[in-house]
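Input.
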Amino acid sequence: MKRSAGIWAFKYALWLLFLLLFLLLIVLPLVTSVLVTYLPNVPAGFSKYLRTIESLQGHLLQFLTAAWFFYVGSCIASFLNVVAWRVPRGRNILGSSHCPHCNTKLTFRDNIPIVGWLKNNGQCRICKAPITSRYLLVEVLLGAIFLSIVLLSLVSGGINLPLRSPDAGRGFERVLFDPQWDLIQLVIHHLTLLSLLFTFALVRYEGKRIPASIFLFGVLFGLIYTFAFPAVQLVHWRNPSSDVAGYATFEINQVVTLLLGTFAGAACGWILDVFEQRSIHSSIYSLVLCGLFLGWQSAISICLIVLFLECIFAIMSDRDFGYCQLSRPGQILVGTIVHLFFWRLFTFGTGYWPNHDSSVFQIVVAFGLMVGLAYVNGRLWHTNHAPDVSN
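Output.
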């Protein structure tokens, strides 16, 4: 009963939103135009009214743009749900979706992310069998991730990105009317990485092995996209100074950056899997993509974040906290989001965190710290859990 009431409240709120959009974007501008055109004497306070309407329309435009980015993320999440379910089972990702209970072909309305699940009250429209709320949560979660990255890396002018000065112009208006294509390329690059990690987490949630085909697709996309848009490599394998960021054209150092990122990610993933005695491949797949997309420094940083968070939550809650119950790809997804949010701070805020100026000694210390934390976390894990060998 409570769920039905909540769904109906959402539907009414959606209709009220549509009504508000109709009033602010169509009715009020039309009425205002008629009054200005045909009234001989416009009241003195009318200009204040116009400014208020324009302000409301501006806020509404920002809200719609944010909602659009959120919904793009939820649509991609809906597709990734299909990928995570079908590919490990050897099925084609093309073709229509069907109800898992009565095998009825789902219509376009049923497949609309978030709205489709709510509209059908979380059940099949035909047989009324319940549909797990996981689909709704996944769509909301990835939509929120997409919106957060867009706000932080695009709308803010790249305030979180290292080795580049944030753009002076910020806000959704700049995104819509004066787009910064270098930031747009970066955001697409980072969101693709997060989507791949998200897919790995969904596959492991299903208890399946991560298909090599999804991993190879991620590697191929990362290589092609980086060669097509060299500037998405913000951090080189060894920057000569903090004033240099991104490649304008293809260079041999770009290949070195990609190779080192791949090897560093593989080494970090191997440390996580071997010293914690957990599944092989899931950590390596995830961190290889992190190193390929973001650089060797980021692969080490993300690995350290994952280990620190796991250690902290294990100490605080004896591993009963939700973060510790995530699969390894899920933890790496969380670590990657944290890294992207504080990337600039990690680069300039401390000389000890892995960055473009790290010495060989600092890199060795970082790997030693990873080995120590992975060993400690592995001992804590096996105190209360059986080894995860299913990958």
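Confidence is low (pLDDT under 50) at residues 240-244, 386-391.
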